[in-house]
Amino acid sequence: MLANKRKTVPLISEISEETFESQVPDLLLLFSRDHIHALTLSNIIQSFCQKSCSNNLQIGLGLYLYNNVRSKKVIDLLHNMGVSCSYNDIRSLITSLAKNAVKTENHIYVPYGIQSVDQEKKNYIHSNTTHSMALVVFQEKLEDLDVDGKIPKESKYSLSMEDVDIPFQKIERYYNPNKRPEPDRLDNLQCSTTEHEYSRKVNFVWRFLRHLDKEKPFLGWTEYHDVLSTSSVKVAQIAYLPFLNNPPTDCDTIYTSMLRLVELAEHLNQHHIIITADLAIYSKAQEILWNKPARLDGKVTLQLGGMHLCLAFLASIGFLYKDSGLYDMLVETEIYAPNTCKQILEGKHYSRSIRSLILTSDALTRLLIDSFYEWMEKEPLDEEVLSHDILQDLKDGKFRKSALDTYLNALNPLFEKMKEFENIGSKSSPTFSYWLSFLDSVNLLLDYQSAERNGSFQLHLKCVFEMLPYLKAGGRHLYAKWVPIYLKDMNQLKLTQPEMYDYLERGNFVVKKTNEKTFNCVASDMALEQSINRDCKSSSGVVGFTRKPTALLRWMMTRHIVGSYSQNFEGV
Fold first, then answer.
1. Structural domain boundaries enclosing 2
2. 3-state DSSP call for residue 458?
3. Residue 84 within any structural domain of the chain
4. For residue range 73-96, what is the model confidence (pLDDT) as tens digits?
5. Which residues of 202-220 are buried (b: 16+ CB within 10 A; e: fewer)?
6. Phi, psi of 297 (to 5 degrees)
7. Is residue 91 part of a domain?
8. 73 found inside a domain
9. Domains of the chain: total
């Protein structure tokens, strides 16, 4: 039998079916299996557990409901039925977790689950929902997140003001220099072209394979690359840091954010970090670093958010081609509604924009390949150049990464012949040249997506460099201004911080959230959108919840821990 009153919080790993069964007396368990086939869960619980004590099943269900529903009425109703613990019990459990999570060493906050390692990645972005700066840490996942030992259960339902008044939340003052700082000379922006050329060939083969059989289309672009991907990026551990209750684009807030991350890194024996931000914060953070404050000098390199950069590139493509029939094409084919198509071409829908451009380019590429084969019929036929057998072999069952490299070399004559056809067509027809430039922009988008999802750092830098003319022509002048700064910083890392550069080359400039597939990494700012920003807007988030500093701190300290309890309960 269980004790009358629980003294500690259960471990995350204890929210499991095996643990639940171990808490039921053996005689009662055997009796229920052999003699009572319609026994409800609440009958079992009430028969061996007093109301003053909650077992792990009740706690697991209570935390699950709190995480996904957050209805005091529903939780207390199930508590009265003997299925769940009470709403106040949940509050006291979460308060216990929060007090355990708020640990500072020499006034440095170390987020839950983050450990001292050789390399680590810090990312931050602002949260529009609370008008505060939110900070998130990404680190290679070393082990499953779990509670360290037994946590004493608090009798209080909320944190006190003494718990909230902690040093790492105080805003540091940044003093602007008399003269606006400037970057060093911009040179050496060129990037390696080897991976870019290989990626273009891989996408070229995908286009031809899609063309072979129009009735039974080949794999989609994502499935195709998932088969080819050899990404070795490790799954990341995600941890939240407390909100900084100050406007996110304020220089004091940005300066304080970088200081907190540097202090955390130094506490973990790391002397240089990568911080990712969108352009609004990136530009001000760069000017702060150019001023070379003593506490940050040589310790931080800024990375421009990959998702926001991609959105700017999508908007540039839409700006350049929407009035030439691209908007009408999307509307008349009824792929999306007219207002949605307008927003897509303005770069306001990430997934929809990419999907619509891939569909359009796929249709245009089919017309291009048809014209290419018609042109080839007028030329002396060469079986090696046509390469039907090779392409058919790839589609029929030899489509694997190991075989593709061999076939790519064999298909080189086809690549050269296609380039010749494109050059002739561009010279003879301005319309041909115009839509060919559209296909080039979409191919660049696919190369960029491939770099992000595979964790290919060199391909990422090359694609960002190739985006510059589009950003300038598409009216994204701020991105066109700051992208060269970003490329310069990344290229200089090889000389100034070779260990960090090698770390990024291993694919750690992106975030991998699951091991289900290999072609599934995402940009750091997208990972933020899918973690802290999404959690803030969920039913268990802070929107419409509270603005009390104690409640906000408790939510931030325990959001990912409560989520882990909830995920464990789903598997029961």
1. 1-100+546-572
2. helix
3. yes
4. 998 888 887 788 888 888 888 888
5. bbbbbbbbbbbeeeeebee
6. -60, 125
7. yes
8. yes
9. 1
